[in-house]
Specification:
Elements (H helix, E strand, L loop, with lengths): L2 E2 H6 L7 E5 L5 E2 L1 E3 L9 E4 L12 H6 L4 E4 L9 E5 L2 H12 L8 E6 L4 H13 L5 E4 L3 E4 L2 E4 L7 H13 L4 E5 L2 H5 L10 E4 L7 H4 L2 H13 L10 E5 L5 H7 L4 E5 L6 E9 L2 E8 L2 E7 L4 H16 L4 H9 L9 E2 L7 E5 L4 H14 L4 E5 L10 H11 L2 E4 L9 H16 L6 E4 L3 H11 L5 E5 L6 E4 L2 E4 L2 H15 L1
Parallel strand pairs: 4-5, 5-6, 6-7, 8-12, 8-13, 9-12, 13-14, 14-15, 15-16, 20-24, 21-22, 21-24, 22-23
Antiparallel strand pairs: 1-3, 2-7, 9-10, 10-11, 16-17, 17-18, 19-20, 25-26
Helix pairs in contact: 3-5, 4-10, 12-13, 13-14, 15-16
Length: 502
């Protein structure tokens, strides 16, 4: 896929300030990369200042490897190579990538979903609802990237700018008409979605997470807001934002959104409301009151938090032309989403649930769902990831004790931190909450396999064991090494061992 540097540079006009140009802009470009190790003869190398590495340090290496041209932020040198200096090479990367791959987002209905929690479930439900009306849907999210029958393991919730454009191109070439994707706050700040124009943006909620990166909740909010203020592109029509009005940040985002808005919720008077909500371990029913009329919803998904996820997906589907009957039938076919309130059934007399909940709010939502459904005790196994937002650790400890009968604190992905040090920080919140609920049993078991085994051995008929934090992940990161570890597999093994000893 050869093009010229001039054709690529044309895409920057009005979006990224071009400060300086040098050399022959008619030079052909056969590849584009921001990784100097991937440079081949004829490549355009875009030097990006990253969080850890500054691509400008590798300009000489890129030239030596055969780069045909450069795009950079720093002043141009006198080297004999075509080059463009821009004010923001990070933003330029996505725009250049989009043009290089034929502006794939222009050929797709682009549905972007952002928020602290609920993104994965909402994308999965959206995909099924849109497929029910004949759209061919690609999915990009935390669990995997899906293009037709091809499933690609996800490296990030939202891939890097060039990887994203390549994925969208593959969707177009594969006959997809729509892309449904999770859009993370990191991706928005790091301009990974630059070069994409969205048709619909969904906001689920905003609660504390990622403050190791964003530093403040206001900065975190502003990151999420970018998806909605970015709906102003002119290449597409029929745009809409779909916003959770029950979340404290929802009304603020709605007021700042430049496109038509539908709100959704249970408590507030939203455009899409769930009424007469009934929850059980077997699923959820409610009446959806929408701009297209009211109709019943029956779903296998469990918990009030999934009512919100379904309402958001219903809003997307209605905007895209789905009927009430199509929505009802499609929602009923959603059995579960990997690692989201996923039950492990191996013949035991108690319930075991694996869930990705790794923030205070997500853990509270999980525990609230369990409280509404439980017959016996709630036994909660959880930890907090290393090298991540430390401020949420005691908060998660308090939440676990507040709504559980037994708490087992263990390792999540400790990464380069000492697992015991992480447990100590979580224990601050646990100890605080135990003053009000001294009857709650509590222990620390740093080894996650042992902790899950202890929870299974503790469980009795009617109890619910919640294994939180990792969900769909099939690995544990200790130091800088990934080890195979799947909570679902480990729980199933523990149940089998319990049965063999009975």
């Amino acid at each position: 896929m050869a093009t010229t540097l001039a054709q690529l540079a044309e895409a920057l006009r009005g979006q990224v300030e071009v400060l300086e140009q040098r050399g022959d802009l008619g030079v052909p470009v056969v590849a584009i990369t921001d990784d100097s190790r991937a440079v081949q003869a004829g490549s355009l190398f875009v030097a990006v200042k990253g969080e850890q590495v500054d691509g400008h340090r590798y300009l000489a290496g890129a030239i030596a490897a055969g780069a045909a041209a450069l795009v950079q932020q720093e002043p141009l040198s006198e080297a004999e190579l075509s080059a463009i200096r821009v004010a923001d090479s990070r933003k330029a990367l996505g725009i250049l990538g989009s043009r290089f791959y034929g502006d794939p987002s222009a050929h797709l209905r682009m549905i972007g979903i952002t928020g602290t929690n609920g993104k994965t479930t909402t994308t999965y439900v959206c995909k099924l609802l849109l497929e029910a009306i004949g759209q061919r849907v690609g999915l990009i999210g935390t669990v995997a990237y899906q293009i037709g029958s091809e499933t690609i393991p996800a490296s990030h919730t939202t891939p890097g700018a060039l990887d994203l454009q390549q994925l969208l191109r593959k969707m177009v070439d594969g006959g997809c008409t729509t892309a449904v994707m999770e859009v993370s706050s990191h991706a928005l700040v790091q301009e990974r979605t630059s070069g994409c124009e969205y048709d619909v943006a969904v906001f689920s909620n905003l609660t504390q997470d990622h403050l190791d990166f964003h530093k403040t909740m206001e900065a975190y909010f502003q990151a999420k807001l970018r998806l909605f203020t970015g709906l102003t592109g002119t290449a597409k029509q029929k745009k809409r934002a779909i916003i959770n009005l029950d979340d404290p940040s929802g009304a603020r985002i709605a007021s700042l959104c430049p496109t038509p808005v539908w709100t959704y919720g249970i408590k507030e008077k939203a455009d899409l409301r769930a009424e007469d909500v009934r929850l059980s371990l077997g699923g959820t029913t409610f009446k959806a009151a929408t701009p297209a009329g009211s109709f019943p919803i029956e779903s296998h998904l469990v918990g009030e938090h999934n009512v919100y996820n379904m309402l958001a997906a219903v809003g997307v589907a209605l905007h895209e032309g789905a009927t009430a009957d199509q929505i009802r039938e499609a929602v009923a076919r959603v059995i579960n989403v990997p690692g989201r309130f996923e039950r492990v059934m191996a013949g035991q007399v108690f319930t075991v649930v694996v869930d990705y909940a790794h923030t205070e709010d997500a853990l509270l939502r999980l525990l609230s769902a369990a409280q509404a459904l439980k017959a016996g005790r709630i036994i909660t196994v959880f930890g907090c990831g290393g090298d991540r937002d430390r401020g949420k650790r005691p908060k998660m400890g308090r939440a676990a004790v507040q709504y559980s009968d037994v708490v087992i604190l263990t390792s999540d992905n400790p990464r380069t931190e000492n697992p015991l040090s992480i447990l100590d920080e979580v224990e601050v919140g646990v100890s605080d909450a135990l003053r009000q609920r001294p009857h709650v049993q509590y222990q620390k078991i740093a080894d996650r396999r042992e902790a899950i085994g202890a929870a299974v051995r503790e469980a009795r008929q009617g109890d619910m064991v919640l294994i939180a934090g990792k969900g769909h992940e099939d690995y544990q990161i200790i130091g800088t090494t990934k080890h195979h570890f799947d909570d679902r597999e480990v729980a199933r093994e523990a149940i089998q061992q319990l049965k063999s000893c009975a």
